[in-house]
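# step 3/5: fold
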Amino acid sequence: MKKPVNVLLSIIGVVAALPALAQSPDVPDHPALRDKFYLGAGVFLPKTSTSAQLNSSTLGIGTNIDFERTLGFEDSKSVPAFFGRWRFGERWRLEAEYFELNRSGTRTLNRDIQWGDRVFAANSQLSSTFNFSDLRASVGYSFFKTKDKELGAGIGVHAAKYAISLDTLNAGSENEKVTAPLPVLSLYGQFALTDRWAVGGRLDRFSLNYDKYEGSLTSLNLDLLYQPFKNFGFGAGYRALAIRGKVMDARELEFQQTFQGPMLYVTASF
């Protein structure tokens, strides 16, 4: 009798241990999937392509300008970038990300350029600036979430802000400022590889024709996270952002811009 009793007690012991095994430390426990607050700051190194056209009610269709080739802008530049996430429930999260890219150039024109109500003549020296910033904010719900995996969807907005200026000594200057709030739908995922390593990705997509705005936006984020300390870590990622838009105001502005490149950053979580 003693042997069957011992076997039975062993089986009961194994069954009793199953809940603990489900929470085994062998399942990765990374702070990116656990901590309530997750903050990051770093440097984004995008390669950029920019074209824009400002039409006129009096002069008609303006010149489509390639700002890198025609106006001598840098096509790559390192800029600061910041992001943050707040988990305000088991499956809910609020997050934001921001970067800005300010550039200027001076170039002697090899052809006439019409920008809005002004024509900048060939052989004149044109000074120009193109300042851009993007603030992305979204709220998301993780429809699948475990200790080491998370998949979800969200809704948010990319607030893209433009400030463009073209100036010559003889023809004067033209300035244009636009803030385009672009709503997006998002899909995201995060996966813990170990307690220290994790990967994540996000895709934002927008296409809209509303009021005086028309355009599309596609944004892709990929991240590799390494957190060797309880509250601090490091990350390396890739960012790609493509925006095409038209603002049908008193003067119609059309623009197309892409950013893509690596991003390096430090993180803090708690």
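# step 4/5: annotate
Residues 1-5, 7-24 have pLDDT under 50 and may be disordered.
# step 5/5: archive (pending)
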